[in-house]
């Protein structure tokens, strides 16, 4: 168990021992004592300590004066017995939350892809410049691409970081909000203790063992204690035991008072005997997991002892743990030692798995793994095809030998292919998915706060969308927990609603009001509402509050009557108890006679009535047959309406008869005169029937689990619409339920339970164990196509186990105990059933938002992968570059996830059945949409890819050297691709086959702004740079003088220049080379002297231009080689292009360069025939 002090490590036991030595009793002794009940406890106190005073002496406290309040003494007590504080589970640090977010499978796949991609982008092998490497050397890469290579990996990592931080921050702020709420509640709690003989109020956390606490009706006990003195004290221990009967406490019978229980009647003093984790509530909290660490250690030990194969079995025991199993087990296979170290972690994971891993997460994980595998296969195939194609083409078709100096170039080629493969993989994995899930959940949780749902576990919100069953409490959730009189039988008339005071005879009214005001505990009151417009507050006994409420409704007030007859003046009181089932109060009249007012369960009190007040307010004889008729005509119909019936009566004892024998109760409680019979209802919340009808339409079964009797439960269930007329449903009491589901040995059998639960709608008089059994049985059941997803509502400590077992536990924010809140997933801040329906709506909305995003994302992915794959295989290069793919993947998908994940829910979500656990994420309709759209997009893209140049009359971008800069052709392909995705985003808004995709589009401003924003971004990114004149360095035709020296060497800013010029340049080179070919022929002819001189003279400029051309060719070739060998000088080709001295040859009059430039070159040429003079120097 958790150690007894909060802030002392267990190693401090010596110090603790010393401090405990100061007192005559130890923590463990007191704890053992508090676990005993009634007679056993009394005997133990008598044997060990003599009496309660003995315990006080050992605890060094005075039963009358209390503790001294000396800080040193208080500190000693805290050290010895602990503080009255149950430490909350340690909040996870931000880094822990980040680490948890990183465990996502999709993110792991992305991280690996990104790291590979980054590594490759920095790998530049040395180049060989041998002619023999052939075409291979031609333009292996363009420096724009090469320098942008790292962007891709970095961008993926960046997206991963964003997703992780957003997720972690969400969890962290949610946890912080919740803890803030809790601590605020805790600080407000105070309790009355006696110190130095003074009655003072101190915060609950400051109570110590040995304090003398004063307790009175309505208190929630903050610590365990032993009664010193009590007056008619009754405690509601249902929050611990689940028993709804109140327990009478007295020194002789049962002096043990437990923390977390409510004082229902009476008052008294107790000595505090256990606080914090040692109190009964603290022990339950420890079981619920405040002391997780101890268990973890145990589990770790036991696991280590088992052989490895058992360990793996233990891991997979939990059904849902299997979903991430493939990944886990591969890692496990890798290293046994690592497994040993991480065992504790894994164990914790598995313990929590059932709760932590929601339906959606399981499906998404499976989907991510499937997509990852498909992507891997596609990318592997791409790489293999490219390598094979290359090898066969180079060494097979062109029959080149493999040269050692060419190896680096070949390697670089293979690396490029690998990068294309990684691109395909990156495109296949939907990066936006984790972000979409996170945004969707976070957005929903924020909005759910407004719908009175405080979500404690993010995934609960989405699990709720899959709920198939709700097991609800009755009191406080379906009903208002405000007893009210709704029917009355007064003066021979049965009123179906509270009558107007004017229709009742004044005498009858007077006697009834007096009877109710005086014959009820004076501690029961109706107070004004706390909030403006709220309902009045009921304090004390709820049934008595309902009668006082009747007095107020009859336009009378009970307080003046009580002021006139204070409690001291009451002559005798027969308090209500379960055997009497009635309460009577005797007053002494001024003439010496007595009047007794009585009230109680109608069937019992009516038996003792011999008269009844008639319509005139006069008593008339009331015979047994009259009584039977009244039971039949008044009381039974009221009970069938779910009402409790109470009879109010009186009796006069004349003065002449002398004082009656008060102890012979039976004689006193007879010969009564009945004033009225009232029917009391705990009214159903007005909005509940509609909410339940919505649930039923949405395919969710609502079951009522209550401690009330079966008639009332059945009546309330009918009013709520849980039981519908003419349908075959079961209403069982706890006892009967247990008989049906347990075998002879008393064990629950799943087969028996499976026969009961599908028809069961009401479980009455149920204990907490019954509730837990029912919930567990429904969850474990295999009846029906899908496993049930169960939500449970609860408010008492006793509901803790059921709330924890359920898929989603709802605790009541107002009436709920701390234990219930701690065990729950969602807290209903208004305790109202309709909020549960809202939660269902939001849950389904989350699920749909993610499906919408999936539909959008997968269309992008399918198209992109196929385009990249076929493009790479047919044209040796992906038509969509890695950076472009990332633009689509990151910008579009991230924004799309924002747009589609913030769609607000609509009522129509409640018109379909829940999806269930096993339904695939991608429905048939979605599959149809994805494939249909993919086919349409592929047709258009391939048409543009293979015939686009003809449509637009531009140059083809296909078969350009590998990784050459983008062409107009491919830019068109890219733009069309992006625009199709953008409009598909609008289609993705509907996933159930609706026709109108624009429906309600204005209700989501985020969506509209994202679509327009993405459109604008795409326009900007697609404008050719030379149209943006104001970006001067990226503009057109800059002269050499304008370019600073550094820029020429870096060449970083010429990328755009190159993009514009090189395409034109390529054509010109072909033209130029062609011309050189012709000119070489001419030169050759000249040399052999076969041509006439005039022709030679006419061709003279050509010879010069031929030298020029040769120079150009050499320059171009050398710049390419240089670029390969020496990445720093990559800019050479651009410098070469930017030199003004090279005028495109298309200008027909070839400019004759100055002699200085060309002289050496010409001398180097074979001299033509002498008749050709050298060109004159312009100087």
Automatic annotation (TrEMBL):
Region called Disordered, residue ranges: 1-20, 296-318, 1155-1179
Alphabetically ordered keywords of this record: ATP-binding, Calcium, Calcium transport, Calmodulin-binding, Cell membrane, Ion transport, Magnesium, Membrane, Metal-binding, Nucleotide-binding, Phosphoprotein, Translocase, Transmembrane, Transmembrane helix, Transport
Domain called Cation-transporting P-type ATPase N-terminal: residue spans: 46-122
Transmembrane segments: 105-123, 150-169, 374-392, 417-443, 930-947, 967-984, 1005-1023
Superkingdom of origin organism: Eukaryota
Biased amino acid composition, Pro residues: 1167-1179
Transferase is among the record's keywords: no
Gene Ontology biological process: regulation of cytosolic calcium ion concentration
Cell membrane among keywords: yes
Membrane association type: Multi-pass membrane protein
UniProt enzyme class: translocase
Compartment(s): Cell membrane; Membrane
Gene Ontology MF, one: P-type calcium transporter activity
Catalytic activity annotation: Ca(2+)(in) + ATP + H2O = Ca(2+)(out) + ADP + phosphate + H(+)
Record-listed E.C. numbers: 7.2.2.10
Pfam family, one: Cation_ATPase
GO cellular component terms attached to this protein's record: glutamatergic synapse; plasma membrane
PANTHER family: CATION TRANSPORTING ATPASE (PTHR24093), PLASMA MEMBRANE CALCIUM-TRANSPORTING ATPASE 4 (PTHR24093:SF435)
Family: Belongs to the cation transport ATPase (P-type) (TC 3.A.3) family. Type IIB subfamily.
NCBIfam families assigned to the protein according to its UniProt record, in alphabetical order: ATPase-IIB_Ca (TIGR01517), ATPase_P-type (TIGR01494)
Function description: Catalyzes the hydrolysis of ATP coupled with the transport of calcium.
Protein's recorded name: Calcium-transporting ATPase
Native source organism of the sequence: Myripristis murdjan (pinecone soldierfish)
């Amino acid at each position: 168990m958790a150690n007894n002090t909060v802030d002392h490590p267990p190693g401090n036991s010596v110090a603790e021992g010393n401090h405990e030595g100061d007192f005559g009793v130890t923590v463990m002794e007191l704890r053992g004592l508090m676990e005993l009940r009634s007679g056993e406890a009394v005997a133990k106190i008598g044997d060990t300590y003599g009496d309660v005073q003995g315990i006080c002496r050992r605890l060094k406290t005075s039963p009358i004066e209390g503790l001294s309040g000396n800080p040193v003494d208080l500190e000693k007590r805290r050290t010895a017995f602990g503080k009255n504080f149950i430490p909350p589970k340690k909040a996870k640090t931000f880094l822990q939350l980040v680490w948890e977010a990183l465990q996502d499978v999709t993110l792991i796949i992305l991280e690996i892809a990104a790291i590979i991609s980054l590594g490759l982008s920095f790998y530049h092998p040395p180049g060989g410049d041998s002619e023999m490497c052939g075409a291979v050397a031609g333009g292996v890469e363009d420096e724009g691409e090469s320098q942008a290579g790292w962007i891709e990996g970095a961008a993926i990592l960046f997206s991963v970081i964003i997703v992780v931080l957003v997720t972690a921050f969400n969890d962290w702020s949610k946890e912080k909000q919740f803890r803030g709420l809790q601590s605020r509640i805790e600080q407000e709690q105070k309790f009355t203790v006696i110190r130095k003989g003074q009655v003072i109020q101190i915060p609950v956390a400051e109570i110590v063992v040995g304090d003398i606490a004063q307790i009175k009706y309505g208190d929630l006990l903050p610590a365990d204690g032993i009664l010193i003195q009590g007056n008619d004290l009754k405690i509601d221990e249902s929050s611990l035991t689940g028993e709804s009967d109140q327990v009478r406490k007295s020194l002789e019978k049962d002096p043990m008072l437990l923390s977390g229980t409510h004082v229902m009647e009476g008052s008294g003093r107790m000595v505090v005997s256990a606080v914090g984790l040692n109190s009964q509530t603290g022990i339950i909290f420890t079981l619920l997991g405040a002391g997780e660490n101890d268990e973890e250690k145990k589990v770790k030990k036991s696991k280590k002892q088992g052989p490895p194969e058992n360990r793996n079995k233990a891991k997979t025991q939990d059904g849902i743990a299997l979903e991430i199993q493939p990944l886990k087990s591969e890692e496990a296979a890798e290293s046994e030692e690592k497994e040993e170290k991480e065992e504790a972690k894994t164990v914790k994971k598995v313990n929590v798995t059932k709760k932590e891993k929601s339906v959606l997460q399981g499906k998404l994980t499976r989907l991510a793994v499937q997509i990852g595998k498909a992507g891997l296969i596609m990318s592997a195939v791409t790489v293999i095809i490219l390598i094979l194609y290359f090898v066969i083409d180079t060494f097979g078709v062109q029959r080149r030998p493999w040269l050692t100096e060419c190896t680096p170039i070949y390697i670089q080629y293979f690396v490029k292919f690998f990068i294309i493969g990684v691109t395909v993989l990156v495109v296949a994995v939907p990066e936006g998915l984790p972000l979409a899930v996170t945004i969707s959940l976070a957005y929903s949780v924020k909005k759910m706060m407004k719908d009175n749902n405080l979500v404690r576990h993010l995934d609960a919100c989405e699990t709720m969308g899959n709920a198939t069953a709700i097991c609800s409490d009755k009191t406080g959730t379906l009903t208002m927990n405000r007893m009210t009189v709704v029917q009355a039988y007064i003066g021979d008339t049965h009123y179906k609603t509270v009558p107007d005071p004017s229709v009742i005879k004044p005498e009858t009214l007077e006697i009834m009001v007096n009877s109710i005001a005086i014959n009820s505990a004076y501690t029961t009151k109706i107070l004004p509402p706390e909030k403006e417009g709220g309902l009045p507050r009921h304090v004390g006994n709820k049934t008595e509050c309902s009668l006082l409420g009747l007095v107020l409704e009859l336009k009378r007030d009970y307080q003046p009557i009580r002021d006139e007859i204070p409690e001291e003046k009451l002559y005798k009181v027969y308090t209500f108890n379960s055997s009497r089932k009635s309460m009577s109060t005797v007053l002494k009249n001024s003439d010496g006679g007595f009047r007794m007012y009585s009230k109680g369960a109608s069937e019992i009190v009516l038996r003792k009535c011999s008269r009844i007040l008639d319509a005139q307010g006069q008593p008339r004889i009331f015979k047994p047959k009259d009584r039977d008729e009244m039971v039949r005509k008044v009381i039974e119909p009221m009970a069938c309406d779910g009402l409790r019936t109470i009879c109010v009566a009186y009796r006069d004892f004349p003065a002449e008869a002398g004082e009656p024998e008060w102890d012979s109760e039976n004689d006193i409680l007879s010969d009564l005169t009945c004033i009225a019979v009232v029917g009391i209802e705990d009214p159903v919340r007005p909005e509940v029937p509609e909410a339940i009808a919505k649930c039923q339409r949405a395919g969710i079964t609502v079951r009522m689990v209550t401690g009330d009797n079966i008639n009332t439960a059945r009546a309330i269930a009918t009013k709520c619409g849980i039981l519908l007329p003419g349908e075959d449903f079961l209403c069982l009491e706890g006892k009967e339920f247990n008989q049906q589901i347990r075998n002879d040995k008393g064990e629950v059998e799943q087969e028996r339970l499976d026969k009961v639960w599908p028809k069961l709608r009401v479980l009455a008089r149920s204990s907490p164990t019954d509730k837990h059994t029912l919930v567990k049985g429904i969850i474990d059941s295999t009846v029906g196509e899908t496993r049930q997803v169960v939500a449970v509502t609860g408010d008492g400590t006793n509901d803790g186990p059921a709330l924890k077992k359920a898929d989603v536990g709802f605790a009541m924010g107002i009436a709920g105990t701390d234990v219930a809140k701690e065990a729950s997933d969602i807290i209903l801040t208004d305790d109202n059933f309709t909020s549960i329906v809202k939660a269902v709506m939001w849950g389904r909305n989350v699920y749909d938002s993610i499906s919408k995003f999936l539909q959008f994302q997968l269309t992008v992915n399918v198209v992109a992968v196929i385009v990249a794959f076929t493009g790479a295989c047919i044209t040796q290069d992906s038509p969509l570059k890695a950076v472009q793919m990332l633009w689509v993947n990151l910008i579009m998908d991230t924004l799309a996830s924002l747009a589609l994940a913030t769609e607000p829910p609509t009522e129509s979500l409640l018109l379909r059945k829940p999806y269930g656990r096993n339904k695939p994420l991608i429905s048939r309709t979605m599959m149809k949409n994805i494939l249909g759209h993919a086919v349409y997009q592929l047709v258009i893209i391939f048409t543009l890819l293979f015939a686009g140049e003809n449509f637009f009359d531009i140059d083809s971008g296909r078969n350009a050297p590998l990784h050459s800069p983008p062409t107009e052709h491919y830019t068109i392909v890219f733009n069309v691709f992006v625009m199709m995705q953008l409009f598909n985003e609008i289609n993705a808004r509907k996933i159930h086959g609706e026709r109108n995709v624009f429906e309600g589009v204005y209700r989501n401003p985020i969506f509209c702004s994202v679509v327009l924003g993405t459109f604008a971004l795409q326009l900007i990114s697609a404008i050719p740079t030379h149209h943006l004149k104001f970006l001067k360095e990226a503009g057109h035709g800059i002269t050499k003088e304008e370019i600073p020296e550094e820029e020429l060497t870096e060449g970083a800013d010429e990328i755009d220049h190159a993009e514009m010029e090189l395409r034109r340049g390529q054509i010109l080179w072909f033209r130029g080379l062609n011309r050189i070919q012709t000119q070489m022929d001419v030169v050759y002819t000249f040399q052999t002297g076969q041509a006439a001189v005039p022709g030679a003279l006419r061709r003279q400029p050509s010879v010069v231009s031929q030298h020029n051309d040769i120079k150009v060719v050499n320059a171009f070739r050398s710049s390419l080689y240089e670029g390969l060998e020496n990445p720093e000088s990559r800019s050479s080709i651009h410098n070469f292009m930017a030199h003004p001295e090279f005028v495109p040859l298309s200008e027909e009059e070839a400019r004759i360069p100055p002699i200085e430039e060309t002289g050496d070159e010409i001398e180097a040429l074979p001299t033509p025939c002498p008749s050709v003079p050298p060109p004159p120097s312009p100087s």
